[in-house]
Amino acid sequence: MCSTDNKVWQSLEKLMRHVEAEEFKGYDPYDALNSRILRVLSFRNKWLRIAFTQGLKKFPLNLRPLLLIEKGYNPKGLGLFLTSYLKLYSLYRTEEHLQKINYIISLLEEFKRNGYSGHCWGYNYDWQSETRLIPKGTPTIVNTTFIAHAFLDAYELCGKERFLKIARSSCDFILRDLHIARSGDSLCFSYSPIDKSRIHNANILGAGLLARLYSITREDELLEYAQKAVMYLIDNQRKDGSWYYGESGCGAGFVSYIDSYHTGFVLEGLLNYITYAENKTHFESIKKGLEFFENHFFLEDGTPKYFHDRVYPIDIHCPAQAIVVLVRLKEVKDTTRLLEKVVCWMVDHMQDESGYFYYRKGRLFYNKIPYIRWCQAWAFHALTTYVHYLHNTFHRG
Fold it and tell me: Given Cys at both, which of 87, 144, 149, 154 links 384, Cβ 3.0 to 4.6 Å?
């Protein structure tokens, strides 16, 4: 158990040294199809593509160098790094942090996708779902939302209108390029422009971004779409306060499961809407969702579960997103005790001595591959969120 906030600082510093030495590049759990070897051996068969991707993701040894997979920049990971360095810069105003911010912004502007209504971003690899092949770079609402929030953070901290314009244009991507499923007075944005899935965390993350832009620009259209997307989420909340990952029968494969970090995304997106739309109509829904989150995704010592009904595998995404959620939802409920347990558990059990964070802990062994987006970017985001919270709490006191 980590007993001091000093240990969290040391953890963050070690992780920072690692990601900076890697220059923000690395492997990803889902990058199998970046291998020319595996692309040839798949014979354009979707089931072989899925088998290669899932097999490489679950294998505890890193075979990527042998398969000629190169380390790369992942736009979503870069967005998380940008948000994290902005938090550090807001506290310390160092030239070193500012240089990293400007460098990451230049990369994100380089990797934005052209040919759409606004700024948008995808992944740096092809990935095969049960229904279709999603080509490298295909923009998604999740990637775009996280990155647009990072640009809004930069705008609020640095005051540059260019950053606001980039984030605002991302709303045009959501409103003009995604498919929209309508149900009465509610709606659901698709995950990408090439599918018609109805995924709850993706939909509400988009709504939260629209609400945040509305709080700045006061455009009624942004608020109207955000409200309708929130209604879709509320209509599909289960009696126990949870949400399935998505709605079945919409071409997204198996979606009837409940997991930790996607539930965290839902809670964070809903809080963004409530905060920025200044609308507490759905406050009871977020309280009920938070109660389910706290009661079903953690053991007594703070061990984070992946699924609500079993412990393993324990994935770095789960404690990382939990830290962010438990910090942000302190205005809904005092989460201090659980928050401290989860932070300590993550640092004690998932970080290597060299600084990077592991991918997963199984019942019998660890998968210690240091994925850049999935592990390092999320751990960095979590630790900087916690440090920022500690700093603000200390100064308020």
Answer: 87
Q: Which domain holds residue 40?
A: 32-68
Q: In this structure, are residues 143 and 121 in contact, taking their beta carbons and an 8 Å threshold?
A: yes
Residue 84 contacts residue 153 (beta carbons within 8 Å)? no
Same domain, 197 and 325: yes
Q: What's the pTM value of the predicted model, to 2 decimals?
A: 0.96
User: Looking at residue 1, what is its pLDDT?
Assistant: 44
Q: Identify the residue whose tokens are 């940008």.
A: 82
Secondary structure letter of residue 330 according to DSSP: G
What digits encode the pLDDT tens for the residues 105-127? 999 999 999 999 999 999 999 99
Q: How far is CA 229 from the centre of its chain?
A: 19
Residue 175 in tokens: 């409103």
Same domain, 63 and 101: no
161 and 12 in a single domain? The answer is: yes
In order, the DSSP letters of 244-285 are -SB-SSSSSS-----BHHHHHHHHHHHHHHHHHTT--TTHHH
Among 54, 55, 102, 53, smallest CA distance to 78 is for: 102
Report which of 7, 84, 170, 80 is spatially closest to residue 372, judged by C-alpha positions.
Answer: 80
pLDDT at residue 393, rounded to an integer: 73
The domain that contains 192 carries what CATH number? 1.50.10.20
pLDDT band for position 391 (cuts 50, 70, 90): confident
Give the C-alpha separation, 198 to 221, whole Å.
21
SS (H, E, C) 122-144: CCCCCEECCCCEECCCCCCHHHH
Instruction: Summarize pLDDT for 17-30 with one digit per residue, the tens.
Output: 999 999 999 999 99
Torsion of CA 190, 289, 57, 316, to 10 degrees: 130
Identify whether the C-beta of residue 208 lies closer than 8 Å to the C-beta of residue 222.
no
Q: How much of the chain exceeds pLDDT 90, in percent?
A: 93
Q: Quick one: 189 and 47 in the same domain? A: no
For the segment 290-329, what is each residue's pLDDT rounded down to a tens digit? 999 999 999 999 999 999 999 999 999 999 999 999 999 9
How far apart CA 387 and CA 382 sit, in angstroms, is 9
